[in-house]
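Entry 12.
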Amino acid sequence: MATSLAGFARRKFATVANLQPSLLDSVITAHGGLSRWSRIRKLSCTWNFHGLLLDLKGFPGWRQPTITIDTKGQPNAIITGLHGDPTNKWVFGANHVSIANAAGQVLKERRNPRDSFRTHVRYPPTPWDELDLLYFVGYAMYNYLVTPFIFATEGFATRELEPYREQERGETWRVLEVTYSDGWPMHTKVQRFYFGESDFLLRRLDYYADVVHSSAAHFCFDLKSYGGIVVPTYRRVVRRVEGENGRPLLSATSSFGLQYAKVTVEDELDKVEEMGRFVEVQTNVAAENAARTP
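Predicted 3D structure (tokens):
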């Protein structure tokens, strides 16, 4: 069973004099810290996204949905504007997804939605229905919004790997391997996250997306602070050569492009809505622009 985010506070940070904090400790601090995160009740994000994968799965073109998550419970999301009638409410849960109209009438629903992907194949690509789309977008966006704080949750395991030299940007990145809690909805059980060597901000994540049978490199740009929480506001996902250390196919068409338009942070006592404050990230601009190219 998936672990509740309420368990994240059980993790202790290194406080003994001269003891270096772990990579996870430094990463969480750089993205806002557990103290700030613990006071957040809800996050909402309106974002633009498109990509080749959507085209192949039968949902072509750009779309601008809004997602709202509750950070205190099990993985969950309410999405509007994802597809079709903009007044419909698309409800994501790890073990149940549904689409309801404005009056609250359930139009479609599915229990154990991940099971429906078992018969899908990569070539020729199996088309998705609306509930497949909901499950994929729901778990993906939920995880993007609660990263890296979920990594300190009971049931998750992390370990630092050897540093990675990013040739395109001329940077060295610290690498954190994350093993997700049993039952947690995610791309795959074990993923790699890359962070700046000195600022500890998220640069990239690598994973094998189980439900689409493909390896991906997921680049993160334009980090901003919303109500004290730092998030990437532009993401580009490209295919990766198969294998543990597969090379990103930067010249290929983007599998996904995501750009956050608005993020709302709702505390337990108040609500903070911001356009976002940019967080400085030292990088090679020319190389970054190349990585961004769709």
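Annotation: The chain has five helices and 15 strands. The helical segments are 23-30, 34-38, 52-57, 130-146, 285-292.
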